User: Fold Methylaspartate mutase sigma subunit from Streptomyces echinatus.
Amino acid sequence: MSPFPTSPAPGDQPVLVAGGISDSHTWNLVYLQLLLEEHGQRVVNLGPCVPEELLITEALAHRPALIVVSSVNGHGYHDGMRTITRLREHPELTAVPAVIGGKLGIAGPCGDDEVAALRAAGYDAVFDDSAEGVDAFLRMLATLPQRALV
Ligand code: B12
Assistant:
């Protein structure tokens, strides 16, 4: 049994975790779920290879506090651009906080221009897979409302 709370509380908004459209890796998603739960968040983990339509449907259903897109197969930049563009086109999802992270490019972390493009397309933050990236992600998480751990 999970030591972390997973059932919804009234008014509780989950964090949606989604793998990139083309990305079949799963342990990154398990890692993120555990990290988020350890930091007081309820998680709805959509798993790998999440198409935009599914992410949009789930975001409308759950009204998440945050959407976290994770990609490690090297296509994160292109997949991530496609995802956030479609998400932000939906009138009810223009303001939901959304971030992306992982091993986003085939030649290492995204460069400044790519990070700027991802942000301009609608991500609130872009994290690389370094320890500093995870630390920055946790600092951002600390700004979200947290569930009381029981
Ligand atoms: C296992 C594995 C696979 C398995 C996945 C099985 C499964 N069900 O998950 C299989 C065999 C299917 C696979 C396939 C492929 N893989 Co693979 N795979 C790996 C491997 C060996 C381990 C991945 C893993 O599970 N890590 C454990 C998790 C916990 O760590 P992680 O994924 O790195 O996530 C961490 C960070 O990235 C970061 N992070 C991730 N997301 C986010 C999000 C946020 C917000 C933040 C803050 C941090 C963060 O935090 C996590 C913990 O530190 C890695 C190499 C490696 N040693 O990392 C290659 C690797 C990820 N694979 C790679 C590649 C290229 C592929 C393929 C394209 C190979 C191919 N030609 O077919 C395919 C892609 C298939 C697809 N459609 O996506 C490359 C990606 C290279 C890149 N990004 O430039 C890697 C890095 C291997 C390499 N060195 O080349 N793979």
